[in-house]
Amino acid sequence: MDRYISQGKQMGLSNVALLGPEQVFFDPRAVLKCRWGCEDYFNRSIKCGPRGLSQDECIEMVRRYQNILLLHGHDAHLLSKAVLAVERSAFLDGHYFAFGIRYCKICKVCAVDQGQPCPQPDKVRPCDQAMGIDVYRTAREKGLPCQVLQSKDEVQNRYGFVLID
Ligand code: SF4
Predict the structure, then answer these.
(1) Domain span at residue 57?
(2) 39 C-alpha to center of ligand 1: Å?
(3) Which residue lies with its CA nearest to atom 2 of ligand 1?
């Protein structure tokens, strides 16, 4: 995993932490916060929709992976790019189930947010909240910063995951 941790840091991330499957915390209230109170849930379903997965299925899938990288950065676009880059590296190394979890910000301007079709739907990965992951707890238990911000001027701590084996 060291190679993928270095790759993430070389791309400009602040931290890349290695988690075991039990160190990813789930809470059904994350799904509640996803379905209501978020942005336009139904119109942005390519980014946000659960695609028919139940939370139990999401938990079971994540628990099958023994090596889970938690990627931490302050730039949403950079973080999305890093998640896909690390996923690709792991896949090419033979980890054929390598898979990213991250609210999609691959494009600097999201076409879906502008009401247009997504030009690269193959790049979209599931949003952690839609899968029921409690990112606050997962990051904090690993000693990484994650708090409710009081204004948009504060430094944002953003997280993504790459599930490897
Ligand atoms: S338009 Fe770009 S940022 Fe928006 S969902 Fe598609 S790939 Fe992601």
Answers:
(1) 2-163
(2) 15
(3) 107
